[in-house]
Amino acid sequence: VPIWFVRTGAAVGVLLYAGTGFATWMLGANFLDYDILDPESTHHAGQHLGILLVELGVLTTVFSVMVVIFYAFAGRAPDIPEEEW
Length: 85
Hints:
It is built from two helices and no strands. By secondary structure, it is mostly helical. The model has no long low-confidence stretch (mean pLDDT about 90).
């Protein structure tokens, strides 16, 4: 996975999570009050949509950060010179 893609994924995940909260706020409800996303629904479809969007944002962010940490450890140069192995 290219590093630019992983870094972008981390930022997009945070924006998706925060954007969902701010969207509910801008629509006139409390922060992360997902019912406003589908106010006509009697089955709380807005709750389902909001939770899925937030979980997708968390998934994207956590995946991207874990890959960045892996790249950071895998790309380190060894501390011991080759002659001393």
